[in-house]
Each structure stands twice: as structure tokens, then as C-alpha cells.
Design goal:
The complex is a heterodimer of chains A (about 400) and B (about 150). Chain A has about 400 residues and is mainly α. Chain A has helices spanning about 5-25, 30-50, 55-70, 75-80, 85-145, 150-180, 185-195, 205-220, 225-255, 260-290, 300-325, 325-355, 360-375, 380-405. The chains are: A mainly alpha (about 400), B alpha+beta (about 150).
């Protein structure tokens, strides 16, 4: 029996082999080529509908399997597929799959970028919202503390820090946008535009939110003073500069249906923000100068401000030249100190960046202050008195000598 | 009497020279007409089949009449290396072998396969012969233009 078992197994194996070879013998060449064409077309459809790298991997295996299954029929298939050939068709499948794989890779990269962008937008918006809420809470506390000057001052300082933090945050966001979108080509814009339709949030919408909050902040009565508004002007100028650089690309990317309208909306918000700042800026500057004993003529724009400064200094020089009194020297000292230690030292960078004064205008005032210094110094009478005394002594001696001789 | 003989002799010589001038007919030997794979053709409403790949078109009505059927879904056609066409269809009892002539296919032979009719016939080109396989029964037949081998 031990001998029989292998024999039966062998027979069974032979039977299977025979059945297999019999089945092979009963093949139809026509069916073989039909089956090959069907599987080929199925793979083509699979390639066309592939959505992921897993699909690509599976189809690659299918192509390998197809090649393995039909390589024994290569001659037959070459005849059936003429002028195509079996190997050409397999190569064609691999080429198509490679193209699709590249496209899928590109789409997946894009989706990853969009997902990352979406996540960043959420983070940015959350941080922005938190800062806005802190700012609003501070403004409310400032309103409630109007009677307590010391407490008010502390709250305004805190509010100012909040604004500075938000400006720094926004600037970082803008710099990031600049680096990403300044040199973005049209194809990438178009790709992101297609993919961004599914985004809940996007940089363009965030920019509009930021601008709205800036306008709200500038419109509030919150104890802010001239340097705060000058700083806002500088921030506005920087924002406008960034928008000029990337606004068109952002609008084409994130508002591809109506880019012109989207750009106009942001431009309008920038104008509104500037107007809100200006509403407070010129009065606050005038007040700041007044509080330091400098009465400037009224002004409501940067040109008028420059004119007012020059007019004040010119008048002061003229008065000092004419009167040459201690009061003129005192006024000079007061203006010079305020101009150098506050206006130029504390505000200078923002004045220039915010287009409130140009470097040239500041230099012009500096030159005039130099003239003023020379004219404001009172001239001493001591020499004149000594001269008169000397003259009197000489005349006295002459009279004495003449009197003695006669 | 001598003159007619001379004329006849001259004509024979001229004919001989004429025939020699024509020379033997140009013949290309060893032509292989074999189709590597059968064609499966669907007749139109006029019972015409058209093999676009091998550029042949004909009417199968006489074959249908011979088989005693009014129509078939598809016919299967293959040509062997000698240039004969082998034609059959599902339900046929025979394979029809035709020789191509000028604007016609003339029947060379009818090869009887089964009285029950073929169920899923298919032709293969195998080693210079035509292999007929009934895919349903697994029966296989080797054929040439003279009949079964």
C-alpha cells in the first residue's frame, strides 16, 4: 500500500496535467486574442479611472500578469494585432500607466499642498480670531476704565502691545504669501485654483478678514495716540505693497471665477482702512505737537503736514531773528528736543514707511532747525556796554587834559 | 503542290518562334496564404460577410442553403497555407473548403464533421494544417483542402 499511494498521486497529477494539456489543445486562437484584447482594454479603462497610487500599483501588477499570461502566445498575438505587436501593446500600457501615475502623483502632491494650506489657514484664522478677541476685550476694558488714568494708561499699553503682536503676525503671514505666490507660474495657479474649490478657507478670504479687523481697530476710540496711528499707516503701506505684488496671483488662484472683482474688493478694503487711519492720524499728530508747545497750522494730509512743519520753523526763525529773546531760544529748545528725541527717534521709520513724511522732508526740517539754532541764540550786550564805558573814559580823559591845559 | 506545303511549313515555324518568344508563364513558388488566426464574421441582412482585415467579401446564402439553415449569427473563416478558405459556423455539420477563383469561391470539398452540428467551432492554424476545435465538446479535427487528416 505504501508503494500504491505515490502511484495514485502520480496518476492524479498526470490526469490533471493531461486535462490541462487537453484544455490547452482545445483553445481557440481567436478567443486567445479576444481575451487578450478584452484584458488589455480592461487595463486601459483601469488606467483611465485610476485615482490613487494604490490603483497604479495594482494596475502595474495586472500588466505584469497580462504579459506573463500571454507571452506564450506572442507570435499569435503579433499576427492578430498587426501592425501592432504584443510587446508594443504591453509597452503602451506601461507608458500610459506611467503618465497616469505621474498625473496622480502631481494631483496627490497638490492635494497635500491644499490640505497643508487648509490647515495653515485654520491655524492663522484661529490665531487671528484670538488676537481680535483679545483686542476687543482690551478696548472694552479701556472704555470702562476711562476715569482711572493710571489703569487706563496700563490698558492702552497692553492694547498697543496687542496691536504690535498682531502686526508682527500679519507681517509674517504676508511674507509667507509673498514667498509662495510672488513667483508662482500660471500652471500652478491654475492647479491650485482647481483644487482650492474644496477649501473652506483661503488666503484671499483671510486677507479680507484681516483688513476688516484693521478697519474696525482704526475706527475704535481706544486711547491710541499719534505714534500708534503712524505705525498703522506704515502697516497699511506694507500691506498695500504686498497686495500689489501678489494680489493678481491670489485673485486668479482663489477667486478664479471673478478675479477682477476679488481684487477690487481688497483694494476697496485697503482704501477704507487708509481713510479710517487718516481720520485719526492728522488730529493725533497735531495734538501730540500741541502737547509739546508746538502749535502747527491745521493739516489733513501728508503734504499739508510737511507745509505746517516748515511754516512753523520758518516763522520761528523769522521771529527769533527779529526779537532774539529768551522765549525764542526756549521754543527752539522745545521743538528741537521733541523733533529729535520723539518725532525722528520714535516715529521716524514709520513716518517714512507710512508715507507721512519723506526722508527729504525730514532732512529739510533738520536744516532749518540748524538755521533756527543760530538765530535763536540771544546776542550778548556786555561788549557794547564795555565799549560805551571805554568811550566815556576816553572822552573824560580828553576833557580833563584840555581843561588842565587851558 | 509544293507552294502550299512551303506556306504551311513557314506558318508552323513562325508559330514555333512566336511561342518561344512568349516564353514560360511567370510563377512565384512557395506562396503561403495562411491566415494566422481565423476571422469571425457576422453576416448582414443580405447574408454577406466582409472580412475587413483580409479584404474578402462574399455571400454565404448557398452555404446556408446547403446546411439547411436560414441564417447564422457568425461564420468562422480561415485560409490555409495553400490558399483554400475553410468556412463553418455554429450548428453546421460540415466544413466547407473553397478555392479562390476570379470573382468567386468555388467549392473544393465539403468535410463532414458531425451530424449533430458543431456547437462552438473554432479554427486554428496548426503546423500547416487547419485545426477545427469544438470548444463545447472538446473535439478536435485536423483538416486540409482534401478533408480530414
Amino acid at each position: 500500500m505504501k508503494v500504491m499511494k505515490p502511484t495514485i498521486s502520480t496518476l492524479a497529477a498526470l490526469l490533471i496535467i493531461f486535462a490541462g494539456s487537453s484544455a490547452f489543445a482545445q483553445e481557440s486562437d481567436y478567443r486567445v486574442q479576444q481575451d487578450f484584447r478584452a484584458e488589455y482594454n480592461e487595463i486601459i479603462q483601469g488606467i483611465d479611472s485610476a485615482m490613487s497610487s494604490d490603483d497604479v500599483s495594482q494596475i502595474s501588477d495586472d500588466i505584469d500578469q497580462l504579459e506573463a499570461d500571454y507571452s506564450g502566445y506572442e507570435e499569435l498575438l503579433n499576427a492578430a494585432l498587426y501592425p501592432e505587436s504584443f510587446q508594443n501593446q504591453i509597452a503602451d500600457l506601461r507608458d500610459r500607466l506611467s503618465g497616469t501615475g505621474n498625473n496622480i502623483s502631481a494631483v496627490q502632491d497638490l492635494n497635500d499642498r491644499i490640505a497643508q494650506l487648509q490647515s495653515e489657514m485654520e491655524d492663522l484664522r484661529n490665531q487671528m480670531t484670538q488676537m481680535n478677541e483679545e483686542g476687543t476685550a482690551l478696548r472694552q476694558r479701556i472704555d470702562r476704565s476711562a476715569s482711572n488714568e493710571r489703569r487706563l494708561s496700563a490698558l492702552v499699553t497692553q492694547y498697543r502691545q496687542n496691536i504690535e503682536s498682531r502686526d508682527a503676525f500679519v507681517n509674517e503671514f504676508l511674507e509667507d504669501l509673498l514667498s509662495r505666490y510672488q513667483s508662482m507660474d500660471a500652471q500652478t495657479q491654475s492647479d491650485i485654483a482647481d483644487a482650492s474649490e474644496s477649501m473652506d478657507d483661503n488666503p484671499l478670504a483671510l486677507i479680507q478678514t484681516v483688513l476688516s479687523e484693521y478697519i474696525n481697530q482704526a475706527d475704535q476710540q481706544s486711547g491710541l495716540t499719534a505714534p500708534d496711528y503712524i505705525r498703522m499707516r506704515a502697516q497699511h503701506a506694507y500691506f498695500g505693497e504686498v497686495w500689489d505684488n501678489i494680489g493678481e496671483r491670489l485673485a486668479n488662484t482663489y477667486a478664479s471665477d471673478s478675479p477682477v472683482q476679488a481684487r477690487q474688493e481688497v483694494t476697496d478694503l485697503l482704501s477704507t482702512w487708509e481713510a479710517s487711519i487718516n481720520n485719526k492720524l492728522w488730529n493725533s499728530i497735531s495734538t501730540a505737537f500741541n502737547q509739546n508747545g508746538i502749535e502747527l497750522q491745521s493739516f489733513s494730509n501728508s503734504d499739508d503736514f510737511s507745509v505746517a512743519l516748515n511754516a512753523f520753523v520758518d516763522n520761528a526763525i523769522e521771529t527769533a531773528t527779529e526779537q532774539n529773546e529768551q522765549a525764542d531760544l526756549d521754543l527752539y529748545q522745545s521743538f528741537s528736543d521733541y523733533w529729535n528725541s520723539t518725532v525722528k527717534a520714535d516715529w521716524g521709520e514709520y513716518l517714512v514707511n507710512g508715507n507721512v513724511l519723506t526722508q527729504g522732508e525730514i532732512a529739510e526740517v533738520d536744516v532749518k532747525i540748524g538755521d533756527w539754532a543760530r538765530n535763536a541764540e540771544p546776542v550778548s550786550n556786555l561788549m557794547f556796554i564795555l565799549f560805551l564805558i571805554s568811550l566815556a573814559v576816553i572822552i573824560g580823559l580828553i576833557v580833563l587834559l584840555v581843561t588842565k591845559k587851558s | 503542290m509544293a507552294k502550299p506545303k512551303l506556306i504551311t511549313l513557314s506558318m508552323c515555324v513562325a508559330l514555333l518562334f512566336g511561342a518561344a518568344a512568349c516564353g514560360p508563364a511567370l510563377v512565384l513558388q512557395g506562396v503561403d496564404y495562411a491566415q494566422p488566426i481565423e476571422s469571425v464574421l457576422s453576416p448582414n441582412s443580405d447574408a454577406e460577410v466582409h472580412d475587413q482585415r483580409y479584404a474578402v467579401k462574399f455571400n454565404i446564402s448557398p452555404v446556408l442553403e446547403e446546411e439547411g439553415v436560414s441564417s447564422v449569427e457568425q461564420v468562422r473563416l480561415i485560409r490555409n497555407s495553400a490558399g483554400y478558405y475553410f468556412l463553418t459556423a455554429e450548428g453546421f455539420s460540415n466544413v466547407y473548403v473553397f478555392a479562390p477563383e476570379e470573382s468567386e469561391l468555388s467549392l473544393e470539398t465539403i468535410i463532414n464533421i458531425t451530424g449533430n452540428g458543431l456547437q462552438q467551432p473554432a479554427f486554428n492554424q496548426r503546423n500547416g494544417q487547419i485545426e477545427l476545435v469544438d470548444m463545447a465538446t472538446g473535439d478536435t479535427y485536423n483538416l486540409d483542402q482534401n478533408g480530414r487528416r
